[in-house]
């Protein structure tokens, strides 16, 4: 299935990924082919879900115990690409 230039432009803007080379376009087309298999699944009578865990009454969260802090500068040194004080994700 061919992907139009307009769709590529929109996806690049949303994902911050360059699809302009043949490898990127091929990877995108394979992902679309894979996702299109979902159209073959019969979902008649299946109610939409908010979460795969929605049947649980309570989702247990662990305590967030901060053991270190004030290390923003050191963490940002690990970023391949950053904008202001934030990681750019996905990079590229």
UniProtKB/TrEMBL annotation:
One of its GO terms (biological process) is regulation of translational fidelity. Keywords: Transferase. GO terms for cellular component: glutamyl-tRNA(Gln) amidotransferase complex; mitochondrion. Signal peptide: none annotated. GO terms for molecular function: transferase activity. It comes from the Eukaryota. Pfam families: GatC. InterPro entries: Asp/Glu-ADT_sf_sub_c, GatC. Transmembrane segments: none annotated. Coiled coil: none annotated. HAMAP family: GatC. This is GATC amidotransferase.
